């Protein structure tokens, strides 16, 4: 997996964590023999109007406009909505709200009938990316903002700190050692090997055999 990718692949650990999350859903039609999904159900059937928590990986297999369940938007996105409107998202501790705030919202966006989750996710990142750039330039290991960042922001932050350190070292000439590239190194080894073979052929036993003395 590419650690900088916004869309992790099927086997990514981050993707597994996100899709294990439970999402509150409202039952739209009576489902026979599905009462086990609701711990508080009084019958074997799942009646209309009941609320159940289903894992995200299961919801993904359902159609957006399926007749069985309506996905309820989690409160974490409702709480961020006001901050987004006021352009005050930089002070929010996304890591505490949800460690995979953006990825979780991306999965929920197609099921949001009010179309607010997608805008919240986009606006939150847009407002925070400049702040993320600033703290990656000025932060140290001791001042790492662990709880303020979600997983994607943490990866961007670590990458920004690493890049800024490399750039600073380059300006201070701490990393000015020129290293031979691997391609050139391999080519040099082949030339040396070829030269040794040629030297071996020029000094073969037939050519170095001495004439008999008369």
Key terms:
mainly alpha, Methane Monooxygenase Hydroxylase, Chain G, domain 1, 48% helix
Largest sheet: spatial strand order = 2-1-3
Shape: elongated
Termini Cα gap: 78 Å
Number of strands: 3
Arithmetic mean of pLDDT: 80
Number of individual domains: 2
Q: What is the CATH-assigned architecture of the largest domain?
A: Up-down Bundle
Structural classification: mainly alpha
Query: Radius of gyration, rounded?
Result: 31 Å
- Count of alpha/pi helices: 9
Family: Belongs to the GINS3/PSF3 family.
Keywords: DNA replication, Nucleus
Domain GINS subunit: 87-171
GO cellular component, one term: GINS complex
List the helices and strands and how they pair.
Layout: H1 13-19, E1 22-27, E2 51-55, H2 56-59, E3 69-71, H3 75-85, H4 94-97, H5 101-108, H6 117-138, H7 151-171, H8 182-202, H9 205-208
Antiparallel strand pairs: 1-2, 1-3
Give a verbal description of the structure.
The structure is a single chain. The chain is mainly α. It folds into two domains: 1-71, Methane Monooxygenase Hydroxylase, Chain G, domain 1; 73-173, Methane Monooxygenase Hydroxylase, Chain G, domain 1 (Up-down Bundle), CATH 1.20.58. 48% of the residues lie in helices and 7% in strands. The protein has helices at residues 13-19, 56-59, 75-85, 94-97, 101-108, 117-138, 151-171, 182-202, 205-208; strands at residues 22-27, 51-55, 69-71. The chain has a three-stranded antiparallel beta sheet. The longest helix has 22 residues, at 117-138. The chain is elongated, with a radius of gyration of 31 Å. Residues 1-5 have low confidence and may be disordered.
